[in-house]
Amino acid sequence: MDNDIKLKGFGSTAIHAGHNKDPRHAHLVPIYASSTFIFDDAEQGMRRFSGQEEGFIYSRWGNPTSAEAERKIAAMESFGIKDANGNPLQLKALLHASGMAAITTLLMSTLKPGDKVLTHFSLYGGTEEMLRNVLPVLGIETIITDLRDLQKADDMLNADPAISMIYLETPANPTIQCVDIDELSKLGRKYSKLVACDNTFATPYLQQPFNYGVDFVVHSTTKFLNGHGTAIGGVLLGKDLDLMNEKIYKVYKTLGGTPNPFDTFMLINGMKTLEIRMDRHCSNAMLVAQFLDKHEAVSKVNYNGLEHHPDNKIALKQMKHPGAMMSYELKRGFDGGVDFMNKLQMCTRTVSLGTCDTLICHPASMTHYSVPADARLKYGISDGLIRMSVGIENVEDIISDLDQALR
Ligand SMILES: Cc1ncc(COP(=O)(O)O)c(C=O)c1O
C-alpha cells in the first residue's frame, strides 16, 4: 500500500500510512541496518548532496525504516485536519532516539540567547531540567507559571517581549493537569509567539494539537505510540515545512539524536494498533478510576475523566477521551505506598507508562525518593501518591490486583 492512499479511518491510517512497497516484496518495511547508502556514480552523489535528487546518504541524516515511522506519525497527527487553504494539513516529522532528543532539537533550533520560554509548572522532569538548568547556560530563560490562568498568561506575554515560545505539555507528567491548547494557541498568535505541545500522554488518537494551530508537537514515542515498552524514541513534528526541512533539519542532523532502525521497526509495528489499544486503555482507566474513587483505602483519585477533577472540562474539550494515566493518594501515606507496591501481583512495579501492561510507580519511594518531602508536596507528590498507567489487560484482573494490594 503506498502512502498517498486516502483512508477514512484513523485506525487504518495508523496501520497503512507511511508504508511504501518494498522492492523485494517484503510485507513489512525491512530494518535498514546500514550506516551509509551507496551512489551509482559520482554524479548521483552530487545530486543527492545538492538536494537535486531525493535519497538516503547517511543514517544520522535519515534512514528508510525511520522515514516510514516519520510518515506514519505525520499522517496520524494531521489526520482529518485542514490547513488555512482548506487542503489536508502537511506535517514534517523528525524521528529521534528519545523524547528528550526531540525536545532538544526543538529548543535548540528555534530559540536564541535572550529568548524566554513560557511554560506550565507541571512538566516531565527531564524537560523541566532542560528548561531550568541547561538552557540558561545558552542565555535562554524559562518562566514557569500556572498556564491554566489564561489572563495571567496574557499579561505575561504582553509584559515580556523576550518570550518567544509557549511550551505546553497536556496532560502533564506527573500531575495529569491539562492546559487549554486552543486558548493558549490563540495567545501565541495574538503575540506572534511559537507554540509547542508535548502530546505524549494523549497520542494523536486522543488529541491533535495542530487542530488548534500549534506550531510544533513533540512525543516520547517510548510510551503509548510504541505501546509495548520495547524501545526508547521521540519525534518532533512541525507544519512550517520550509523551517522543518531547512533550519530544523540541519540542527537535527548536527545534534545527532537520530534513532536506530531496529527501535524504529518496533515503533512502526506498535503504532499499527494504537487505536484499539487506546480504546481499551481508556475504557479500563475509567472503570479503574471509578473503583478507586470509592475505595476506603484511597483518599483522592486524580483522573481527568472523573467529573470532580478540576481539569475534567478542559480534558473533554480537547481530548476524545481523558486517557489512561492517573494518580491516587493512599490514606496510609508512605508506608501504605510501600506496602501496596510490595503486594502487587500482576500490575508491574516500574516507572514509565503507555505499555500494554499496567505500570505502577510510588514516586515518594522511587522517582522522588531523594527529593525532600516539602519540595515534593509543592508538585502534589504526597507520601502516599501512586501513579498508574492503566494497561490493556482484562479490567477485572487489574481491579482485583489493586483491591488485594490495598488491603
Ligand atoms: C511527557 C513526557 N515527555 C517527554 C519525555 C521524555 O521522553 P524519553 O524518556 O523518551 O526521552 C517523557 C518521559 O517520560 C514524558 O513523560
Descriptive key words:
15 helices; 39% helix; globular; single chain; 14% strand; seven-stranded mixed β-sheet; alpha/beta
Q: What is the general shape?
A: globular
Measured by DSSP, the beta-strand proportion falls in 5-15%
The helix fraction, in percent, is 25-40%
Query: What ligands can be seen in this structure?
Result: pyridoxal-5'-phosphate
Structural class: alpha/beta
Strand order of the largest sheet: 1-7-6-5-4-2-3
**Number of separate strands:** 12
Low-confidence stretches: none
Largest sheet: 7 strands, mixed
Average of per-residue pLDDT values: 96
Distance between the termini: 52 Å
Number of helices: 15
- Give the topology string: H per helix, E per strand: HHHEHEHEHEHEHEEHHHEHEHEEHEH
Radius of gyration: 22 Å
Structure explained in plain terms:
The N and C termini lie far apart (52 Å). The chain has 407 residues and is α/β, with parallel strands linked by helices. The chain is globular. The chain has a seven-stranded mixed β-sheet with strand order 1-7-6-5-4-2-3, sandwiched between helices. The chain has a five-stranded mixed β-sheet with strand order 8-9-12-11-10. Helix 1 runs antiparallel to helix 3 and helix 13 packs across helix 15. It contains 15 helices and twelve strands. Bound molecules: pyridoxal-5'-phosphate (PLP). Pyridoxal-5'-phosphate binds next to helix 4 and helix 5.
